[in-house]
Amino acid sequence: MEDRYTTSGRGQLYSSILETIGDTPCVRLNHIAPSHVSMYVKVESFNPLSSVKDRLALSMIEAAEREGRLAPGQTVVEATSGNTGIGLAMVCAAKGYPLVITMADSFSIERRRLMRFLGAKVVLTPRAEKGIGMYRKAQALAEQHGWFFARQFESRDNADIHESTTGREIAADFAQTGLDYWVTGYGTGGTVVGVARVLRAQLPDCKIILSEPHNAALVGSGQPQARNADDSPAGSHPVWEPHVIQGWTPDFIPKVLQEGIDNQSFDRVLPVDGNEGMQWASRLAAEEGILTGVSGGSTLATAMDVAQDAPAGSVMLVMLPDTGERYLSTPLFESIPAEMNDEEQALADS
Asked: What CATH number did the domain enclosing 322 receive?
């Protein structure tokens, strides 16, 4: 057996699943990337519950514990499109907190089932009420029952965890090669804001590219977000429209992302069609063996556009926030049959 297949373990034992969060790999694309650039993807599905939001979930709960904002056994409540809720369900299960999630009923069935499987309660809100609806439901439940409202869209612990983990991982992995472009989308804005703090200091020549849905270009519009006194959104942003990129761009600009806008944490903001993102997610799986969801595919689509004008030899990194298995009931897998097609039947009969 070749040496590269020989392993010797991690050299440590873990006292909790929570200790396995982070240190996700950056993997080179060998078949679908343009030949004049070196393109890598940061595969956040290597986190224990398969998304970048595992980092945020742990950060919010442990910061609240340290600061006395979360009492032992207190119920946690949060509004989420799914991945933060799944991460919180893992963290709360491991630490013994009851969890209630509010989520618009437009998000994938896999998400709600995973959260319930992990012991959480999931309260669905009408899709017509958009992200604001699920946010206000979580806020109301917290006030009514005295629960801890995690508030991922405003929490300072959001960007902080990406500064202390994700950003440092990227800086360390590209310390020798350098990094010319880092491409990401946004949901709460924590990833781009936290990582940008590190890249601006340690890899200052790196261009940071932010992507958002072409039909919900909130940041690109330049129009401000109305906020309440507690920094929560006062209502939907005027240019938002429904889009297919689950987990990206709620119908408001989160307070966390506002730091990035105010501090110019990104060099460009580019719109992307989520349908194009699904095509790139499909190619990434079939031609590179890397499984990601619509958000990862859309980030990759944006990176491919950036690569067209990138100088030869450029090094690029693309964020892949989660796994494709979270989208089995969505249009991403619509063309994938469960039964054998004619070619497969012919093989079976041969």
From this structure: 3.40.50.1100
